[in-house]
Design a protein that fits this description.
Length: about 200
């Protein structure tokens, strides 16, 4: 999934000459924690609520502008990049959000919350579902056969995960399916020789 599919496009931005107090007010009003600093459509900096709160303690806060405290070369990402790449950048740099740029032009922003929601939806966690955990073993084309069994029973595969066991014969696969009765599917899987570890409706 690409960043452009998940990024926020309706952005609240500020110019470099904004005061600290004004920026904090804008954040509170819009319930946001990041503000891109933009000049003539181009990204020139980035500030977080934490940056502003630290700066607000300065005795001359009324005379300090965003330009004095903003991150002048923020970590950015392209709208064509993957969500995995965005998640990696956020993790490595220990930040809460990324400005999305095309060249120097700001086109969006993506936060850790946007990425988490995308992965939750991808995994089907918020969707009513059933789950089957089983061992595929070393049987050739096992994954294709199991998927065929699910399809034969009209079951929609929402997501698939697996344990990281080095021994492939003991590796457990976690199939999240659309909500349904699992007994007939479990019976078919066992008939084909698959070890069903758990089935949760």
């Amino acid at each position: 999934m690409l960043v452009k599919k998940r990024m926020a496009r309706k952005l609240v931005t500020i110019p470099p000459n904004t005061s600290i107090l004004k920026a904090l007010e804008i954040m509170r009003k819009n319930s946001i924690r990041h503000l891109p600093v933009v000049e003539r459509g181009n990204l020139v900096g980035f500030v977080t609520e934490g940056d502003l709160r630290q700066a607000s303690f300065l005795s001359m806060v009324g005379k300090v502008s965003i330009e004095d405290v903003m991150i002048k070369n923020p970590v950015t990402i392209s709208p064509e990049a993957s969500l995995e790449e965005a998640a990696k950048l956020i993790y490595v740099h220990k930040i809460g959000g990324l400005p999305v740029v095309k060249g120097k032009k700001l086109v969006g922003i993506i936060t850790i919350v946007d990425i988490l929601l995308a992965f939750i939806q991808l995994m089907g966690i918020l969707k009513s579902s059933s789950r089957i955990d089983l061992v595929l073993g070393k049987k050739p084309y096992a994954f294709e056969e199991v998927s065929g069994i699910f399809r034969a029973h009209g079951a929609e595969i929402i997501s698939v995960g697996m344990s990281n066991h080095k021994d492939r014969k003991k590796r457990i696969y976690y199939f999240r399916l659309g909500k349904r009765r699992l007994q007939p599917i479990v019976a078919s899987l066992r008939q084909k020789g698959y070890k069903v570890i758990a089935a949760t409706e």
